[in-house]
Amino acid sequence: xxxxxxxxxxxxxxxxxxxxxxxxxxxxxxxxxxxxxxxxxxxxxxxxxxxxxxxxxxxxxxxxxxxxxxxxxxxxxxxxxxxxxxxxxxxxxxxxxxxxxxxxxxxxxxxxxxxxxxxxxxxxxxxxxxxxxxxxxxxxxxxxxxxxxxxxxxxxxxxxxxxxxxxxxxxxxxxxxxxxxxxxxxxxxxxxxxxxxxxxxxxxxxxxxxxxxxxxxxxxxxxxxxxxxxxxxxxxxxxxxxxxxxxxxxxxxxxxxxxxxxxxxxxxxxxxxxxxxxxxxxxxxxxxxxxx
Amino acid sequence: xxxxxxxxxxxxxxxxxxxxxxxxxxxxxxxxxxxxxxxxxxxxxxxxxxxxxxxxxxxxxxxxxxxxxxxxxxxxxxxxxxxxxxxxxxxxxxxxxxxxxxxxxxxxxxxxxxxxxxxxxxxxxxxxxxxxxxxxxxxxxxxxxxxxxxxxxxxxxxxxxxxxxxxxxxxxxxxxxxxxxxxxxxxxxxxxxxxxxxxxxxxxxxxxxxxxxxxxxxxxxxxxxxxxxxxxxxxxxxxxxxxxxxxxxxxxxxxxxxxxxxxxxxxxxxxxxxxxxxxxxxxxxxxxxxxx
Lengths: 292, 292
What we know:
2 copies of one chain form a homodimer.
Chain A: H1 5-8, E1 13-17, H2 22-32, E2 37-41, H3 48-51, H4 64-73, E3 78-82, H5 97-111, H6 114-127, E4 131-133, H7 135-138, E5 147-148, H8 156-172, E6 180-184, E7 187-191, H9 197-209, E8 221-224, H10 241-249, E9 254-258, H11 267-277, E10 280-284
Parallel strand pairs in A: 1-2, 1-3, 3-4, 8-9, 9-10
Antiparallel strand pairs in A: 5-10, 6-7, 6-8
Helix pairs in contact in A: 5-6, 9-10, 10-11
């Protein structure tokens, strides 16, 4: 799907913006590379103050017709969807005509898990003449690479916990569960399902405070990786300073992510937060290429 | 390991009793079958009032030497370990001499997950001349059989959710994670890790109340099954009226368990609670034998 890259690079990039700092991080990175950027902030999620820095067209989550109209008018073919959208209910959506036509299909997509929903949305964009790019394709700087990021190093035991977590995420992939687990001392302490990583960490912290889960302080690794079949263009897992704070509050030793498969809006800020909190952050390469 | 069954059936049965109502349910069932019962209640966990109904010797969790002495004195060879023991820390244990000798080995067991710990304990009993029986072997009435237990029936969609949950538990088996998941509308809503089923359900209920997880009321199935490699003699998963209350509070439609692999202390009480709460309870047979 990237064979058109050379021909669309001169065209403006459409960024459909959910919440959080990722949309502007991607916009800034694309703009720095010399590309014109047009934002399509989602009402109710996007950060209005930050959006003003770029040409933009506000839209509802279910206003696909409106998006198509303005994106074509702006000459955009490449589209990035980025930022948090807490799973909406069908009732929250106020579909425009372009969306209404797709509604039976979207309702079917909602019946599956996140994967199903997100890759289905990707296909719909493609069928309407757009090319859906991963945020990391438009802004490679947001990808976390292999290696240790900050000043704290994982112990061999932490690395073993990280490997176990990555294997577990791979095993649960077919079930479209979450993208994060916590492993400490070879024991699986938490598995993310529908609650999200922050909530999983908050719950683990509460359980440890209450003495419901016991393991030594500063042990345990938060592991994040995409599900094996995940559409990387729509939904790469992400971490940020909030993740570091959550992992620290849960008493963990650090964070391990699948290298080149997890994004962060501002790596320098992430590293600063991890260094201050005393946590390691590592990108772990594919199993076949790992040393030791 | 059951070839000695005929020769030991006349000997008294030793029951090491943790918390909850299971120990007495097993004792009553064994006593009803005409067998003499000697209880070994664990200080801090067993129900002191109920224990009095049978000959008993209180012991600390780490008093293996004391157990061996009294069990041999009583002429017991068959041992059942049953009831809740919230994962203790090594500091909580006050080992006697018999335990101290095994301590390096037990510390190693503690480094693994529950499976590792529990099957290791099973081996230790065997090596000391005891025969470890599953509670369901001494008291088959506690096993939940295949079929619908109460007056409420699962819908075909509930059955599909149950099947998905059973497949997920099988897939995470090698990671020694929990024995329970919640699946609703084909979506995995929660995966038990170290927190236990009740806490998983309480957390899910809280997330739904807060609008953090949205799915229609009265959908979703709590699914429980042993891990594939689990030592069924020491740690069959269990449900009870508390599980029914937790599932109801989480807005679920019902409970599905792997038939003949999950125990309950009092089936009549379980069915009553489920009927009142409007939940179905089903035992699901092995995949190969399922109809539809």
